[in-house]
Amino acid sequence: MGLRVLLMLIGALLCLGGTQGNAADYPSKVITIIVPFSAGGPSDTIARLLAQTMSAPLKTQVIVENVAGAGGTIGAARVAQAPPDGYTLFVHHIGHATAPALYRKLTYSPITDFEPIGLINDGAMTLVARKDFPVKTLKELIAHVKANKDKVNLANAGVGSASHLAGLLFMTEIETDLTTIPYKGTGPAMNDLLGGQVDFMIDQTTNTTSHIKAGKIQVYAVTTPQRLPSMPEVPTMHEAGLPNYRMTVWHALYAPKGTPKPVIDTLSKALQDALKDPNLKQRYSELGAEGVAQDRATPEALRAHLKTEIDKWGPIIKKAGVYAD
Questions:
Q1: Is 103 helix (H, G, I), strand (E, B) or coil?
Q2: pLDDT for the residue numbered 2
């Protein structure tokens, strides 16, 4: 019995020493960032630019793997079950905060199954309509949809998408329920908006800016507190008539729960260094996705922000009675 206890103690000490050694030597191999959406979308672009830039301060290659499906929950579940060694990370957007309210059978907790590393960016959205929609300002749009709520429709990129959430918030703010048309992605929704088959939608600047500048769709407002440098002529929702409407499609970086603090600290520092890189700043700005300030690219800031977003969106989603299986 004494020998067994001694062997157990030795084993425990060896494991502890190995963990400390791994953390001290971190990173010593390729790091993979899981993106829970298909390649080519806004989240994928944000993550790939970040991975490329973080490779320098980490002195190792950082790659992106797409694990799409079920509104991002398949990729999230995979990361939640990954070894907590700092070699499998996770980039997700606002959907990480809305998943608990949207999915009745969620197999993980965004709060307790992940270690926050830091926020990455805030992305703007735009309220846009088909080119021949018969109103020219946001105030006119609100009056029109209230008076014709059974005749107009609001498109989105699917249940749980950023455009879906933005639409729910819009209906909450104007206190009017509208006919919504969910699509399987932003591409099909935008195609029908361009073709005049749907009336309006709220979507990320990464998907709308080129069409706005080409005059193919109308734009009424941006959802950020300030106007965008890329479209300075477009007013904010606040300026245009909805003073309480504010929404950004933020992205953040996470690791599996239990990842050692020294590893989290190393990753957070690398994230902060990457966000100071002039090239990354420019690329994000071109996408309408401004990198966050240094004090927000921290575990503490992300932990607080995630809880605030969960508390904000839960009641809105539950009131709308929207669920995804």
A1: strand
A2: 52
Task: Note whether 190 and 207 are within 8 A (CB).
Answer: yes
pLDDT at res. 170: 96
CATH of the domain at 210: 3.40.190.10
Angle (CA) 230 231 236, round 5°: 125
CA distance 307 to 52: 29
**DSSP-derived secondary structure letter, 84:** S
Tell me the C-alpha distance between 324 and 132, whole Å. 33
pLDDT greater than 80 at residue 299: yes
Q: Note the pTM of the prediction, 2 decimals.
A: 0.82
Burial bucket for residue 282 (CB in 10 Å: 0-12, 13-18, 19+): exposed
Write the pLDDT tens digit of every residue in 305-318: 999 999 999 998 98
Distances (CA, A) of 92 to 100, 236, 286, 306, 324: 14, 25, 20, 11, 18
Distance, CA of 172 to CA of 194 (rounded, Å): 26
- Among 77, 25, 72, smallest CA distance to 47 is for 72
Q: How far is CA 67 from CA 71, 187, 254, 267, 318, in A?
A: 11, 19, 15, 22, 27
Looking at the fold, whether 167 and 260 belong to one and the same domain comes out as no
Gyration radius of the chain over CA positions: 22
pLDDT in tens, 14-29: 444 444 446 789 999 9
Tell me the two tokens of residue 299: 């575990």
Question: Domain containing 43: what range?
Answer: 27-123+249-320
Cβ atoms within 10 Å of 190's Cβ, excluding its own: 23
Q: What is the mean pLDDT of the segment spanning 22-47?
A: 89
- Range from 21-25, 191-195, 264-268, 282-286 carrying the lowest mean pLDDT: 21-25
Bridge pairing between strands 62-66 and 200-204: unpaired
Q: How many CB atoms lie within 10 A of CB 20?
A: 12
Domain end marker among 186, 218, 240: 240
As a whole number, the mean pLDDT across the chain is 90
